[in-house]
Amino acid sequence: MSGRAGAGLVPFDEALTRYEPVIGLETHVELGTATKMFCGCPAQFGGEPNTFVCPVCLGLPGALPVASRAAIEYTIRIGLALNCTIADWCRFARKNYFYPDMPKNFQISQYDEPLCTDGWLDVTVEPEGGGEPRQVRVGIERVHLEEDTGKSLHIGGATGRIHGADYSLVDYNRAGIPLVEIVTKPVDGTGALAPVVARAYVTELRDLLRALAVSDVRMEEGSLRCDVNTSLSATGSGRWGTRTETKNVNSLRSVERAVRFEIERQAAVLDEGGRVVQETRHFHEDTGATTAGRSKEEAQDYRYFPEPDLVPVAPSREWVEQIRASLPELPAARRARLKAEWGLSDHEFSMIQNAGAVDLVAATVTAGAGPAEARKWWLGELAREANQSGRELADLPITPADVARIAALVAAGALNDKLARQVIEGVLAGEGTPDEVVAGRGLAIVRDEAALTAAVDEAIAANPEVAEKIRAGKVAAAGALVGAVMKATRGQADAGRARELILARLGQS
Ligand code: ADP
Ligand code: MG
Ligand code: ZN
After folding, report:
1. I need a surface site. Which of 120, 197, 246, 419 has the fewest CB within 10 A?
2. DSSP states of 43-68 as a string?
3. CATH number of the domain that residue 472 is part of
């Protein structure tokens, strides 16, 4: 077969010449309510194993659940922010299956009566290699509320999986923490952008959930978890292919990589006349590959039925409207406001956004810097530094207040850009605040007129021909002498003042 990239993969660009991808994302988010979904236990991450438990979340016989009002309110908040319809009456459902980390042997979830349905979230992506940013509307199928399971720990095996383990431990602290599942409609028509659309959607959703203050949305700790569905169909075939579901992909970058990999893998299967198996797959961070998990060819029968121990949820319209009115400014609106306040074009603003610098620039402006300066330092010097050291901008050891202080020193004429870069270097190296670095490295611009005049006279004496031209009226030649002065003062002279002195000395002012 032509154009194969190793074992069972078709190069991404080639795959896109024959196939159209469709993606769909299922995102689980643990709510940051004080208590669990159906009992009063703390809904907290960590803690000594099995200390945040009670008869209800341990599923002991006779214990009865009561739904958390806060969790329902948070879910409605999410639904409204995602432009969904909020049900005026719905029920929880019992999803029956056996698993050791699920003490009741059923999960209380929602099935055919989700709390929120039929919304959307807009995301913006930039095509690779430039071009106009493209907006994609991701449809939201449903947002429903359920309870999280406990956690199993498999001891003794090589992989942390149950296979090969000596024994397993179960921690029920997480059992019963309110969990919201957000399911997208299938997203088609994005072609080669499918992987970045998937990533942009999860990024936008995370930022939205953070703005709503409903969760701490930490992918590493598992409070935001993502299953990525991908399918391919032959271009122009007019129907969607069989999807695979890559489970628990736990970083934004991995979301993009998982879609990319599945496109390359499924293209190879289809090229060989094979059939994509409907199954769950595991994503491997180290290789970027997915491997087969559980087959979904035959639908598992969870024997769903309405949960008999809970009353229906019937949020009044007044309550829903109250929640709507209390929504904070959402990320898309905030971006539009900042873009206007900062006077930036779409492209300029999306550069800040892609660098992950919107909050940093905003905080720097709040600390007193002009938007242009704030943007210049974060996207210039600091982005370069972050790139080189493989860090996120926000993780650099410099604060927006530091950057604002440096910008203020430049605006006041105490630093020029070159010196400012050295100050940044010093702050990043842990030499202290900008003022401490200026003092410690002796970086302030030379304002001593006598020293400056001496440097100017020296420059004139060393460049008699240039001096003669200026005397004869060729003022433009002064640049060469300013350069000599800057060199002699190791960049610390006030270039504007040096120029004035040179012109005065040579009878041109
Ligand atoms: P399941 O219970 O199997 O996880 P869900 O309905 O919860 O099913 O989620 C299925 C996800 O897969 C949704 O996000 C949906 O949009 C997406 N999806 C459905 N069909 C396809 C397809 N052909 N290709 C890619 N994604 C799909
Ligand atoms: Mg699902
Ligand atoms: Zn409990």
Report:
1. 120
2. --S--STT-S--TTTTT-TT------
3. 1.10.10.410
Structural domain range at position 353: 332-441
Number of structural domains in the chain: 3
Q: Dump strand ranges (E) for 97-191.
A: 106-109, 116-125, 134-147, 151-155, 167-171, 178-184
Mean confidence (pLDDT) of the chain:
93
State both tokens at 329: 């400014």
Distance 117 CA to ligand 1 centre (A): 15
Same domain for 170 and 62, yes or no, is yes
Choose one of 303, 322, 346: the last residue of a domain.
303
Give every CB contact of residue 402 below 8 A, 6+ residues apart in sequence.
Answer: 427, 433, 434
Q: Is 22 in the pocket of ligand 1 (CB under 6 A)?
A: yes
- Tell the residue nearest (CA) to atom 17 of ligand 1: 24
Q: Is residue 25 pLDDT above 70, yes or no? A: yes
Contact 329, 337 (CB under 8 A): yes
Q: Which atom of ligand 1 is nearest to the CA of 186?
A: 16
Enter the pTM of the model: 0.83
* Pairwise CA distance, residues 280 & 246, whole Å: 6
Per-residue pLDDT tens over the stretch 326-349: 999 999 999 999 999 999 988 889
- If asked whether residues 241 and 99 sit together in one domain, one would say yes
Structure tokens at 446: 């030379």
Q: Is the CB of 246 under 6 A from ligand 1?
A: no
Hey, which of 20, 25, 26 would you mutate to test ligand 1's pocket, going by the most ligand atoms within 8 Å of its Cβ? 26
In short, whether 138's Cβ falls inside 6 Å of ligand 1 is no
- Does the C-beta of 176 come closer than 6 Å to ligand 1? no
Give the atom of ligand 1 at the shortest distance from the alpha carbon of 183: 14
